Amino acid sequence: MTDLFHADDHATPLTPIERDGLIPTHVTLHSELNELEQKNIAEADSWAFARKRGVLGEPFLLGLHRRMFKRVWRWAGQYRKSDRTNLGIKPHLIQPELRQAIDDAQGWIDYKSYEPDEMAVRFHHRLVVIHPFPNGNGRWSRMAADLLIVRLGGSRFTWGSANLQKKGGVRDTYIDAMKAADNHDFTTLIAFARS
Questions:
Q1: What range does the domain containing 57 cover?
Q2: 29 forms bridges with which residues in the sheet?
Q3: pTM for the predicted model, two decimal places
Q4: Is residue 101 included in any domain, yes or no?
Q5: Is residue 132 in a domain?
């Protein structure tokens, strides 16, 4: 059991104001928080994959995050306002960078710049780099990539077929693949997404 707001090396630390955004008052353990978030995410998953709309739109992406975390965090679907020392861009750059990522992904599709899997994985990586929200960015961006690959005619990714919230093992492999993508090598991340 871990303290509710204890973050490991790869989790986004929350500011005190962001922590105050927790809606359920009975939650005291991180495992309880994960369980509540997962229930909310499962509902959002059903909603998102039942829709025929494209994923490449700012309102849709904000709405997706809101649906994924709306019963857990008051700030669900709202851009973060705090700086992160180890990840993400400055808060005032989030909206323009997200719009640029959306436009770039649409361009990749229009010009068939990459294979569909690579387009979706590159989109996922860009969303994580931007890190628009206080928390949930990895789960949100993986769902966005899943939605994109399905819209492109592919099947959902498996993302290592494991819970990427748990420290060690598969999560470490994912983090290493993300670091390789930071250096413009997407082969490991594409392979991981399909593993």
A1: 16-80+115-193
A2: 3
A3: 0.93
A4: no
A5: yes
